[in-house]
Amino acid sequence: MVKTIDAVFDGTVFRPSEPVSLDPNTRVQITIETTTPAAEGTSFLQVASELKLEGPSDWSANLDEYLYGNAEHEA
After folding, report:
1. From CA 55, how far away is CA 49, in angstroms rounded?
2. C-alpha to C-alpha distance for 17 and 2, rounded to whole angstroms
3. pLDDT by residue (tens digit) across 23-56?
4. SS3 track for 5-73
């Protein structure tokens, strides 16, 4: 069985963030990948600005043109 779980290392042991369905004393192999916790209260705009996306400076003013091309879009 292969399963990825989140855990916290308390300085001595790894503490899973959720229950693990294993019998006591089951041998496992652990691969460690450190992660940074998601910042609580991070807004969509903060996340979007951190992505450093590039686009035209007039994106919001000419959204229809970028979405539908040069012809006027008729609803």
Report:
1. 12
2. 17
3. 999 999 999 988 877 667 778 888 888 888 788 8
4. CCEEECCCCEEECCCCCCCCCCCCCCCCCCCCCCCCCCCHHHHHHHCCCCCCCCCCCCHHHHHHCCCCC
Give the whole-angstrom CA distance, residue 10 versus residue 13: 6
Place of tokens 């008729």: 74
What is the distance between the alpha carbons of residues 75 and 72, in angstroms, rounded to a whole number?
A: 10
35, amino acid identity: T
Q: Using alpha carbons only, how large is the chain's radius of gyration in Å? A: 23
How far is C-alpha 68 from the chain's CA centre? 30
pTM above 0.90, yes or no: no
Q: Are 13 and 7 in contact (CB under 8 A)?
A: no
Please name the amino acid found at residue 67.
Answer: L
